[in-house]
Amino acid sequence: MSLRPFHVAFPVTDLEATRHFYETVLGCSVGRNSDRWIDFNLFGHQITAHLAPPNSGVSTNPVDGKSVPVQHWGVILEMQEWQALADRLRQQGIQFVIEPYIRFKGEIGEQATMFFLDPSGNALEFKAFADDRSIFAR
Which end of the chain has fewer CB atoms surrounding its CB within 10 Å, N or C? Predict the structure, then answer.
């Protein structure tokens, strides 16, 4: 089975700030759009920002000693892409919810991970594995 791009739609409160963040900060190209939504190309995946009322809060779960936002999404990158993105986000002055680090170091499922918020408060996680065979390892 070949891996196909995923699609995710998510709420935002400000389309202009959202477009700047995803296009300029994350480097996404912009696809179709209207005055209520924008399609972005995020590492080959289609994500759609929809204008919606603000969210009422963020729930978290403890993972590896960190408070991980329960509702989040992102992309598993190659390690070099992950490091380049972490460097770019630091240069852009992005405030991390969870700073880039190696989670589960020396264990099954060891991974590089980082969490940050978009301008509407949506939690994003980008991660990378030294060995992609450990993505679903138990």
Answer: N
Could you read off the pLDDT of 24-36 as tens digits, one per residue? 999 999 999 989 9
The answer to whether the beta carbons of residues 55 and 121 sit under 8 Å apart is: yes
d(CA 25, CA 44): 16
Q: What Rg, from alpha-carbon coordinates, does the chain have?
A: 15
State phi, psi for 113 to the nearest 5 degrees: -150, 155
Taking a C-beta distance cutoff of 8 angstroms, is the pair 73, 93 a contact?
no
What is the pTM (predicted TM-score) of this model?
A: 0.86
pLDDT in tens, 70-121: 889 999 999 999 999 999 999 999 999 999 999 999 988 899 999 999 999 9
47 φ, ψ (degrees, to nearest 5): -120, 145
CB 58 within 8 Å of CB 69: yes
